[in-house]
Write a structure and sequence with these properties.
The complex is a heterodimer of chains A (192) and B (592). Chain A is of the alpha/beta class and 192 residues long. Chain A has helices spanning 18-31, 79-84, 105-108, 118-125, 134-141, 147-156, 163-173, 179-190, and strands at residues 6-13, 35-40, 50-58, 71-76, 89-98, 129-132. Chain A has a single domain, classed as 3-Layer(aba) Sandwich (Pyruvate-ferredoxin Oxidoreductase, domain 3), CATH 3.40.920. Chain B folds into 4 domains: 2-217, Rossmann fold; 222-319, Rossmann fold, CATH 3.40.50.920; 351-515, Rossmann fold; 533-590, Alpha-Beta Plaits (2-Layer Sandwich), CATH 3.30.70. Chain B is built from 20 helices and 22 strands. In chain B, the strands form 6 sheets. Chain B has a 7-stranded mixed beta sheet with strand order 3-2-4-5-7-6-12, with helices on both faces. The chains are: A alpha/beta (192), B alpha/beta (592).
Chain lengths: 192, 592
């Protein structure tokens, strides 16, 4: 029965806009007629900590969190966090990650180093890996702050949801004046 | 109409549909969004209270006046509200009264993971436990019906995974025709003098028996018969995990988890070969089922500590050969050793300089609950105790009472504005009354920050965003009789350190109030950014002193073959100026 469910994990750093992206995903799935559940932790994690949001859709979803080892898609907003949650994925899962490094406190203070070559290591474990320069594509689309929407566009390509629902969900959840830029950013990601 | 609602949003909606008149709460993760969402609905008087006991007193008062009332709090908040709660079990209600307890298994944002289902049994009131957002809304409405039908407060228990998960909910219209609130005197029921209370207690015992019968035929206690090999009694989010992992098992899904419908449990037990309880935290259901003489497996199989997950349940039942061990593939190894990413104070946080000074002064810091608890984390590392809301001042008093005289002056209590008004103020009363020579630092950032920036009695605004009378904390401390009260700017490092040192050395009670708003306060004119700072590559000697404040905007940049340098991320810097004051080489400069 879990084969009918698609499991998506959104991971990154508190303050990166993960909650909004997971809201847009959930809204699109609901509009497309699916059952949907999502779960994340607020509170302490808002203060620049590691954040993971679970989104699941299908004909009937029970658990709001993705069972360990059953993630189908990892949507990474930051490289270190992308690596941190790989263990939640199943073999052959798709990983779509933003090519961005945000140093954690121990790296800022020079006590530890930000690991190098993470992208290559992710690719070796998950060949279905797409590294996206979200910042550049969003800047090209008109606003560097729409990087998440570029990534969302890339993720949407891997999900069987008609484009009109994505547009409706984005229109509902982003501020009206940011809609045009986000639409463009979404297309840029979808065309990758 | 339908929407995707979180458990908290659905409880707020349920309260609206149930015709609630009054909602009161003190913010606390994971309960906070209930009140934040209830304000969108017309006809509900919603407000932040200074603490959970006050919110329950307000809720029960509204109930005595004949209106439906909801109060919401995190699990540890119920400890604060426990005093009225136990007696409200005796008085019962007039208008329906529902107390939401949002528990936090795994302690995502809490100091303990107490299982508040135990309160229902201890207080002898019914408790409902929803398993998704749809049930959050429906159970909230049912809770008001049960409250009025059985003349009792009702507890609605969520966990973080229910409060903060979203699922699809059908929306309904609010109920009509509830009686209008008015003053009705009923002293024998509401004045709990011993003579009256002795009359009420037997009614409480009778009520619990009746509710046990009521639960047997209640549709939210539901037998779902599938295979008769395994039967699982469960409720809340563990129900969802069970359905996911053991799709063929029969389940007894409980919505009313106290009192338990023992007859229904016996019936279910008789129809399955092997009976289990799958519940998070304490063996609450298990112990009662066993006490009823039913053989069942629970905590011998599943952990008491922490959250359950589908994986934990799978592993446990795989050990009994009842399900496959792994669904598909073993977990891949992490691709590298990954540095952790703990939460941190924000760039420009006014608490940072205070903890730097406390660290430098080697103070023994009795801490409290708020963002500033992060002062414990390196490199600030300046907190020695943190127990519960408001404990810092009493803890400081106690430490001072026992340690040798030369150590006494090291003791400093640190507490936020909202936490001080919550329960810290009583500690200060003791300190003044008993003339204890400790130092209290009240970090007044004009907001309840940790839970996501809620207003409080010292912030000047209400939950509804209306201007409010603002409690002046220094004046309040003076009025309580503290002779040494001073206000400092925590962005001024030297002044902060000097003030704390002077008060530590003073053999009298003293209070230092820091006066800088939280950088996240969005209200205009409260927080203003200063000139952004930058590190001069020529002047920086790479001494790393500036890194000792742990600001996320300040980083170490290694340089190949040479000593590294500090640098400042200008996008994150708020211009608080604290790092500039630390640099002996004047390498940190205001950017033009």
């Amino acid at each position: 029965m879990s084969t009918a469910i698609t499991n998506i994990l959104l991971v990154g750093v508190g303050g990166q806009g993960i909650l909004l992206a997971s809201e847009i995903l959930s809204e699109a799935f609901m509009l497309a007629g699916f059952d949907v559940k999502k779960s994340e932790i607020h509170g302490m994690s808002q203060r620049g900590g590691s954040v993971v949001s679970h989104v699941r859709y299908g004909s009937q979803v029970f658990s709001p969190i993705v069972p360990e080892g059953e993630g189908d898609i990892l949507f990474g907003f930051e490289m270190l966090e992308t690596c941190r949650y790989l263990s939640l994925l199943k073999k052959g899962a798709a990983v779509i990650a933003n090519d961005l490094c945000i140093p954690p406190p121990a790296v800022l203070s020079g006590k530890e180093q930000y690991p190098e070559g993470l992208a290559d290591r992710v690719r070796s474990l998950f060949p279905n890996f797409l590294l996206v320069d979200g910042l550049k594509l969003a800047t090209d689309a008109g606003n560097p702050r729409a990087a998440n929407t570029v990534l969302l566009g890339a993720v949407s390509k891997r999900l069987d949801i008609p484009e009109e629902y994505w547009m409706k969900a984005i229109e509902k959840l982003v501020p009206p004046k940011a809609f045009a830029v986000n639409k463009k950013a979404f297309q840029a990601g979808r065309n990758l | 109409m339908k929407g995707i609602l979180s458990g908290n949003e659905a409880i707020a909606r349920g309260a609206f549909e149930a015709g609630v008149k009054v909602a009161s709460a003190y913010p606390g993760t994971p309960s906070t969004e209930i009140l934040e969402n209830i304000i969108q609905y017309e006809g509900i008087d919603a407000s932040w209270a200074p603490n959970e006991k006050v919110s329950l007193d307000i809720g029960s008062g509204a109930s005595f006046g004949g209106g439906r009332a909801i109060v919401a709090m995190k699990h540890v908040g119920v400890n604060v509200a426990a005093d009225p709660l136990f007696t409200l079990s005796y008085t019962g209600v007039n208008g329906g009264l529902v107390l939401v307890t949002a528990d936090d298994p795994e302690m995502h944002s809490s100091q303990n993971e107490q299982d508040n289902r135990n309160y229902a049994k201890f207080v002898k009131v019914p408790m409902l436990e929803p398993a998704d957002s749809r049930e959050c809304k429906e159970f909230t409405k049912l809770a008001f019906e049960i409250s009025e039908q059985f003349d009792t407060p009702v507890m609605l228990r969520t966990t973080t995974r229910i409060s903060h998960s979203k699922s699809i909910v059908e929306l309904d219209e609010p109920v009509q025709g509830l009686p209008a609130p008015k003053l009705v005197r009923n002293a024998a029921k509401l004045v709990m003098l011993p003579g009256n209370a002795r009359v009420r207690h037997p009614l409480v015992e009778e009520r619990i028996k009746k509710l046990g019968e009521y639960g047997v035929n209640l549709d939210i206690n539901r037998m779902e018969m599938r295979s008769n090999e395994i039967g699982i009694i469960t409720s809340g989010v563990p129900y969802q995990y069970v359905r996911e992992v053991l799709p063929d098992a029969s389940t007894l899904k409980l919505g009313l988890i106290y009192p338990l419908p023992i007859k229904l449990i016996k019936k279910f037990a008789s129809q399955v070969k092997k009976l289990f309880v799958v519940e998070e935290l304490d063996p609450f259901i298990e112990e009662q089922v066993k006490a009823a003489g039913i053989t069942v497996i629970g905590k011998d199989l599943l952990p008491i500590c922490g959250e359950l997950t589908p994986g934990i349940i799978r592993k446990a039942f795989a050990g009994l050969g009842m399900v496959k061990a792994q669904t598909e593939n073993p977990l891949p190894e992490a691709p590298a050793r990954l540095p952790g990413r703990p939460p941190n104070m924000c760039p420009g946080c006014p608490h940072r300089g205070v903890f730097y000074a406390l660290n430098q002064l080697k103070a023994y810091v009795t801490g409290d609950i708020g963002c500033y608890t992060l002062g414990f984390m390196p490199p600030l590392s300046a907190m020695d105790t943190c127990i519960c809301m408001g404990a810092s001042i009493g803890n400081a008093i106690g430490v001072v009472k026992v340690v040798a005289e030369e150590e006494r002056k090291k003791v400093v209590a640190v507490i936020g504005d909202s936490t001080f008004l919550h329960t810290g103020i009583n500690g200060l009363m003791d300190m003044v009354y008993n003339n204890v020579p400790a130092t209290v630092v009240i970090l007044d950032n004009r907001i309840t920050a940790m839970t996501g920036r809620q207003e409080n009695p010292a912030s000047g605004f209400t939950l509804m965003d209306n201007p409010a009378s603002r409690i002046d904390i220094p004046d309040l401390c003076r009025a309580m009789g503290v002779k040494n009260v001073r206000t400092i700017d925590p962005y001024d490092l030297a002044a902060t350190k000097n003030a704390i040192l002077e008060e530590m050395n003073r053999p009298e009670p003293s209070v230092i109030v820091t006066d800088r708003p939280c950088v996240l306060v969005k209200r205009e004119g409260v927080f203003t950014k200063g000139p952004v700072l930058a590190v001069s590559e020529e002047k920086c000697t790479g001494c790393r002193t500036c890194l000792k404040i742990g600001c996320p905007a300040l980083a170490w940049k290694p340089i190949d073959g040479k000593k590294g340098r500090a640098y400042i991320d200008y996008l994150l810097c708020t211009g608080c100026d604290v790092c500039r004051q630390l640099c002996k080489f004047e390498a940190i400069e205001r950017k033009k």
